Amino acid sequence: MAKEKSTKSVGGNEPERLRYAGYPSVVAYKFEYPQKRVNDKPVFEVDEKGIQNKDKIGKPIPVLDETKPKQKKKAPKNSELPWGFAVKDTGERYESIEGAKNVVYALCRRANDSKGGFESRDHAVWIREDKVQDNRCLEVVFVDIGQGDGCFLITPEGKKMVIDAGEASNMRHYLNWRYGSSNSTTFEAAVITHPDADHYKGFEKLFERENFYFETIYTNGLMEQVESKEKPKKGEPKSTGLGPVSTIKDGKKNVEYVTDLVTSKKELQAFLGKPEKWKNRQFPTMLNNAFEGRKLRETRSSIHGEKSHVSEVPGKTMGDFRMLSVDDEYMPGYKPIDTSTPGWAPKSAKETNGKPVPHLEIKVLGPITMTVDGKKMLQWLDGNISKTKNGHSVVLRLQYGNVSMMLGGDLNIPSEELLLRHHTGLEVPDESTSPTDTAAFEKAARQVFQVDIAKSCHHGSSDFSHWFLRALNPLATVISSGDDEPHSHPRSDTLGAIGHFSRCDEGSRPLIFSTELARSTKDDLQKPWELRAEIMDKVETIVNTDSQTKREQLMEKLKEQLKKDIDRSVAVYGAIWVVTDGEKVIIYQKLEQNGSHGEYDIYCLEPSAKDPKGPLTFKPKH
């Protein structure tokens, strides 16, 4: 790194404020004096006896030469910060003459996700002032939760939603890593797209947390129930694992519908008040515990205790509960607004380059309900419980400025065709459909479903309608699939179909991301063999320590490291981030080893130069 021609400190009187890394990423620097050299040899600190002083990790401490100008170097850790990365601007500035230009740097404290806060001032870094921004972007994180789905969304106003949470504890690890394990955190919503364990069971670990509170829990209304073994009498509804199923005349056809939906907090309370209907069923049991506010508190043991003590404590988990369906049209709080109305922008929003911050719209496209005598029902799909609860997933379409995204749960062929028919008013084409009618259907379907980014339904399963993929016509697709599962997700034919039916304008390429491919080991740890060796060394040190107090201190440090490493591996190495300001997008993932081009694999999606307000494109480097 070339030396600075001249440097000086400026500013420093402004209060700290929250800011964000600019597009598409920024570099964090340190300004340091060079190491002192004598006879061209580096000089290190020594004690009174001439023995080298070492830092905490055993490295010799260099002696700095303050007679020379400071040098600009990349920060030793996390030197690349992707767009939207949160920092605390300390208000201190550093002016550097680089070439013939004066460049101003801001001293910033980076978000320290392992503690839910920000790094200390001792670890602050310098970022170019023109590379940080005041406004938060929309951020959607597809967490590597193993087999299943788990998505975390933060709005530009800082509201937080968890949309599915997988089956294991990965989502909890991620949120611990991001917000700290003890900080009180409020989530605007928990959206459980449907009652399948690989989408909802991870919420069990979140609902149990003392410090997590969800303002509203949304579901698709279906509830796991005890199925009666008695054969129904003629004219009576049949009993299923999702409750009674009745046959209802729909035009000229008889159609089966699930009739016992839970659509509100009042109905949930009534349903849970009859445990004989749901006894020993995981999904309603989890909701019952959340409804009653059952929390768990873990008390760490000393070195002699071996196991931590977990006790149940009272607490509040949820404010409201309700079903989401196409009848809602939009998720509460996310309807379109007239941007010409004075004061339309959220109070926390500001203008970016003279342009108003977009309003996030979240449209509910599914499930498709039928209402009879004021009672909502869902169609019994293919006479199959799995098809029904998967197919009636909550389907959300996000629109932020000119950028759109689809989150579709575990849709399948019957449900996708149901969605297409409902929203277009047309029949899905078959071999007998004329080219004119086929083109009309595709146009109508894309007016509703086309998006820039789609979350692949059902983890890349082959149970999909190619007409639904045609309607989505995405530029980028994100697949959430497990590393240790029997389904071989994502399926090869699905990957081929996604690429085939994705948007591919001239000079652009479609993109497919997978949480399974973003992290190469199935373990919660990035390199378990290295951590295992390190743990054994530390355990040996603890065992050989004479002082009981020292042993306990070392044990606590080891516990903290294990928790941090587990949480960070899940959060960093498997997640796929989508960040947008409503005009452009980056999709990125953390590299397991830093490459020549940085710490992240970042893809930029932008409108074409010919049409700044047109659809996004991805321009490859090669």
Topology:
Elements: E1 7-11, E2 17-21, E3 25-27, E4 29-32, E5 37-38, E6 41-42, E7 71-74, E8 80-82, E9 86-98, E10 101-112, E11 117-118, E12 125-128, E13 132-133, E14 138-142, E15 150-154, E16 160-165, H1 170-179, E17 185-191, H2 197-200, H3 202-207, E18 212-219, E19 238-240, E20 243-250, E21 253-258, H4 265-272, H5 282-292, E22 294-299, E23 309-314, E24 318-323, E25 360-366, E26 369-372, E27 375-379, H6 385-391, E28 395-400, E29 403-407, H7 413-424, H8 435-449, E30 453-455, H9 466-472, E31 476-479, H10 492-500, E32 511-514, H11 515-518, H12 528-543, H13 548-573, E33 576-580, E34 585-595, E35 598-607, E36 616-618
Helix pairs in contact: 1-13, 8-9, 12-13
What's this, in brief?
This protein has 622 residues and is α+β, with helices and mostly antiparallel strands. 22% of the residues lie in helices and 31% in strands.
Describe this structure in words.
- The chain is of the alpha+beta class and 622 residues long.
- The chain folds into three domains: 7-33 and 68-133; 138-484 and 509-519 and 575-618, Metallo-beta-lactamase, Chain A, CATH 3.60.15; 528-573.
- 22% of the residues lie in helices and 31% in strands.
- The protein has a ten-stranded mixed beta sheet with strand order 24-18-17-16-15-14-33-34-35-36.
- The two termini are 28 Å apart.
- The model is unreliable at 1-6, 302-306 and 519-529 (pLDDT under 50).
